[in-house]
Amino acid sequence: MVFIEYEAKDTMVHRLNPLSKLIWFSSLVFLLTLYLEPQPLLIIFLLELFIGYLAKVPWRKLMARAWWAFILSIFGGYTFSLWVNKPSQFWHIPPELGCKVLLELTPPETPLLGYTAITYGGLLWGTAITLKVFLGVIAASILTYTIPLSDVVYLWSKVLPYRLSFICVTGIRFYPVMMEKVREIIIAAKSRGWEIRSKNPITRAKEAFPIVLPSAREAMLLAERMALAIEARAFGVKKPTSLRKFTFNSADVFFIIFNVSITVALTCMWWYYGFGKL
Amino acid sequence: MRSYAVLLEDVTFTYEGSKTPSIKEISIKIEWGEIVAILGGTGAGKTTLIYTIGGVIPNYVKGRLSGNVIVDGLDTRLYSLYELAQHVGIVMDDPEAHIVSSTVEEDVAFGPCNLGLSRDEVLKRVEFALRATRLIELRHRNPYNLSGGEKQSLAIAGVLAMRPKILALDEPTSMLDPLGKKRIITILRELNKKYGITIILSSHNAEEIVELANRVIVLKDGEIVLEGSPKSVLQEVELLEKCRVKLPEVTRLAAKLRQEGKWTGALPITLEEAQNTLVKLIIKQEKFTHQEGIMIKRGKEPIVRVRNLTHIYPNGVVALQNLNLDIFPGEYVALIGQNGSGKSTLARIIAGLLRPSSKMAEVRVAGIDVTRARMKDIVRKVGYVFQIPEHQIFHSIVKEELKFGLKNLGLPEKDIERKVKSLLKLLELEGYEEEWPLALDRGKRLRVALGSVLALDPEVIIVDEPTTGQDWRDSLYVCELLRSLNTRGKTVVIITHEMDLVAEFANRVIVMYKGRILLDGRPKEVFSKPEVLKKTWVKPPQVTTLFQSLDNMVPRDVLTAEEAYEYLREVIK
Amino acid sequence: MDSVSSKLLLIILLLILSNTGPVIASPFETVITLNIHCMDSRKKPLAGARVRLTSEGTIVFEGITNMSGWISISLPRGTYQLVVDWLNSTVFSSKIKLVEPSTLDIICSVYYLEIIVNTLYLFPVTQAKVTIERNGTLIFFYEGELQVPYKIYQLSGELVVRLPRGRYTVSVEMIGSERKEITLTSDETVVFIYVASIPSLITLISTIVAATSCILFLIKGRAKRY
What we know:
The complex is a heterotrimer of chains A (278), B (573) and C (226).
Chain A: H1 12-15, H2 18-34, H3 38-54, H4 59-80, H5 95-98, E1 101-106, E2 116-119, H6 120-146, H7 149-156, H8 162-173, H9 175-190, H10 201-207, H11 209-231, H12 250-273
Antiparallel strand pairs in A: 1-2
Chain B: E1 6-15, E2 23-30, E3 35-39, H1 46-54, H2 56-59, E4 63-71, E5 74-75, H3 81-85, E6 88-91, H4 104-114, H5 119-132, H6 148-160, E7 166-170, H7 178-195, E8 198-203, H8 206-209, E9 215-220, E10 223-228, H9 230-233, H10 237-242, H11 249-259, H12 271-281, E11 304-312, E12 318-327, E13 332-336, H13 343-350, E14 362-365, E15 368-369, H14 375-378, E16 382-385, H15 398-408, H16 413-426, H17 442-454, E17 460-464, H18 472-487, E18 491-495, H19 499-505, E19 508-513, E20 516-521, H20 523-527, H21 530-533, H22 542-548, H23 561-571
Helix pairs in contact in B: 4-5, 4-6, 5-6, 6-7, 11-23, 12-22, 15-16, 15-17
Chain C: H1 3-18, E1 31-39, E2 50-55, E3 58-64, E4 70-76, E5 78-86, E6 89-98, E7 102-107, E8 110-119, E9 123-124, E10 127-134, E11 137-145, E12 157-164, E13 166-174, E14 176-184, E15 188-192, H2 198-221
Parallel strand pairs in C: 1-7, 8-15
Antiparallel strand pairs in C: 1-4, 2-3, 2-5, 5-6, 8-9, 8-12, 10-11, 10-13, 13-14
């Protein structure tokens, strides 16, 4: 999912080899899978904000496009945290601390829901999940903002067939374009008095149907026109020339070392000290 | 044997699934270095012809092709699209359809890179293409952040990087504002003069291509009806109007005068020609004094009231700055200005489709505060027709499409049926009610979109660029329809770049510039200030410019060919 | 024997018997039960403490508290000296008067010594050899995992030991060793920072490398390519 597209800028992060940035992203994803507790995630969050600052990420634009993902993560994270209230769910935090009830919502006998409560451990878990989504969105945005499409295609084509990597990357890149068209279609529908009123998910899906037809049509049109344009420009005929010379300079080396070493440090802390475990 | 750039011999093409051919027995010979314009209305076969020349037909688009199509000595049936792309480059009307990369430079390099050329060769071609299309300064920009004209230039650059000797462009300026159109015309002229590239382009607007092309081919219903130099072709005014081609206003004016015997000799096709001839023909008058036009009677209460409107988009772009505006019932307002001046933003806020970013803003339409009211209440007061009609077509048959808004408002079925019936009649869509809207031609599609808005019977109707992608006849039809609604009491606001339409239909013109109102008044007042309009790249109607250039011999505020004719028939020797 | 002599004999017999010490109690003398609950400074039970009661220098009772820190004593009414020993130190001493059956909660001078082992204050040591001596005598020895408890603000390898009041020498050994003298008069924390373990060294070195490479990246990255 692309929230902000590549912009050719002359920042330290833009100048890095795309492989260095991919290593950074991979180590981040690895760390995100480890942690269930907010402390290490906050450290990673600050580091990521720093990288974003170096890359001169347009934060306002990102927030304008990704606000819904953040809201969803807050809502989802804290909702599911209501069920994080059993001692068996805590490995590192003392269970009596983790299960410390701040506000009980439903008693254990409640049908379907069972026992739900706002607990200290639940709040930590919910915060961790929310932070993970924030981190993922920001990291992916930094990546798409600082790596041009052709570089991504070039890298992916090292492991996948060129055609497939181009199509996948183009699909990702066209997400904001498509979203813009869908937004336009929704506005057009609203201008005709359309709105989703029902709270029933099945009825909501039915009510959303008028948007589906023109959106699907736009997607197909976009794909068709693009296919014609790229075919006319010899796409897939030969192995394409890479316009950029990919080199590793000292900045890349230090960046990779930084990422690897911070990953080792944080992983050790997780493994040996339970740092970030719930 | 003589070699031609393009040679078509008895070419006929029928799209798969269609019964009638889109082009019939077309024979054309295009010399090297020519600029050939293909004129015609919607459905004339222009796009099909361009696609055939470019090799898209039959390599990409399926159908039955007969006859010979030889481009740069190659039979298009025997070569793949990419092989042909190195001889003839094809550029579509939608500038965004060509964008494949994250920067301008990469996008241009896409084609040569795919050919596996050496890096140096690719860079050389990119440099050439960027220079030829004036995109050198923008090489690192994201293509989606370019203006319309720049995007179309990028499309041309991407194709040029393949080093074709021929360019085939399908209505390259139809989706652009005046600044964008000027840019593309200039680039094409330079490509032809400097680099000797043969250019074939289609259009429905003769005025745009008349100074560019050295040959014109006119199509109607897939057949060639006229061919020759622009000067010779544009003499056939009646035939061209039947072919739904927009003529230069000066040509139309001269044709009218010719009917009365007031104009002898060839009809002018450019402003200069008309000026040179009129200067000799007009009986010298006393210095002409400006006369006031008819004042529009305005009601006491505005139907649209805007106060302190400022809007800043989330990305920081300031679209509107402290705008204050009143639109009165019964006005037919044209909102004009360069792309990015804030026209669409203002229109959408008035239609309640966009909430203003400033809390101080007050926007009231027919008594309701559209910044706070529910959409269901707003749509009954103000309707908005989008620039791309397809974005507001939600159903697979015309009748259901017209019913869509009415069903959303929960009206009884009987009332809905009645309304739809009367709409079909008003829009001349009777007989098409069971058709798929997207299978209709562009003009009818716009009518369906307009009908879907009219179904809700709003008091204010806003139409965003009704001429985009439309031929002149369809554009006129829509504006006439809006005028009839205006006569019946509806307030109409159109956003357009076609000044001839503004002059013909609007009784009020608002010129926007950088989020503010630059000029606001009757068309005569606004168009009599060309030095102010220059800032916004808005050109007055051609007839107005003609009269303004005649040194006070004639009134400066004549707007249309008809008005000019009425005046000139009295003063011409 | 006449009646006067019998009475005299009875009186002498009674006198003799009444002067006999309480050791030879007559079945007719009262025994009081006293329940003693020994606790440490944090009011946690002190199990295995030696409880001794003496009367005029003679030990009249000696016992060990159970797992919950309780011990039950039955003695005749009187005043005794109560002494509680733990780990060979007297942790409580007081005169008590046994009048009626009762329960006695006593807070002994047993304090908590929190031993924290971090490498350079940064990363916890999770395994160590801990030795505690008093006057050259080994009081406590531990070799194994140190706990890393959950804390918001600090990471630490911790071992908590209960000790009687006194002067001790605490030694910690892993990669490197450190020794500290402490006087325990209340709950104390002693931090060892020059001891390391493999995990703490790996984490420390990685962090230093990360910080250094970050600085170098910032310096080198500033140089523009174009």
